[in-house]
Amino acid sequence: MVGLYWEEWEVGKSFTTAARTITETDVVNFAGISGDYNPLHINEEYCKKTQFGTRIAHGPLIYAVAAGLLFQLHLYDDTLIAFLGFESLKFTKPVKINDTIYAKVTVTEVSETSKPDRGVMKRVLQVFNQHDEMVQEGVQAFLMKRKPV
């Protein structure tokens, strides 16, 4: 299966992923992998005294899960050359353990490069919780293959 080539990414085109619940295991594993043991993520008693009232997931964990959900759409299979980075990324609401998230991406720009076999695609990434409240938003850029001649 081949994903979308640069020419197939049209401004305004949107894709929405399936949903996934963020578990305590996800948060604990991410703390171990990243070394981020901030009590907001791992100490329930501490968190009861905060504005959140309970533990919250790491922001980068939520982005990583959203990226995985997007990967499962197979939009980039054999057509992605490189992730060029974020122009912005905001964490707009906390994600708590047992919240369920999904992602939506909307293409905002496609531009040619100096090389004829590739182009840049920019998109807005939005991540929502089970109440359809946005929890993350960012602008990303990707280097995509063009259709073979």
From TrEMBL:
It holds the Pfam family MaoC_dehydratas. Residues 11-115 form the MaoC-like domain. Gene3D superfamilies: Hotdog Thioesterase (3.10.129.10). InterPro entries: HotDog_dom_sf, MaoC-like_dom, MCH/BMMD. This is Acyl dehydratase. It comes from the Bacteria. SUPFAM superfamilies: Thioesterase/thiol ester dehydrase-isomerase.
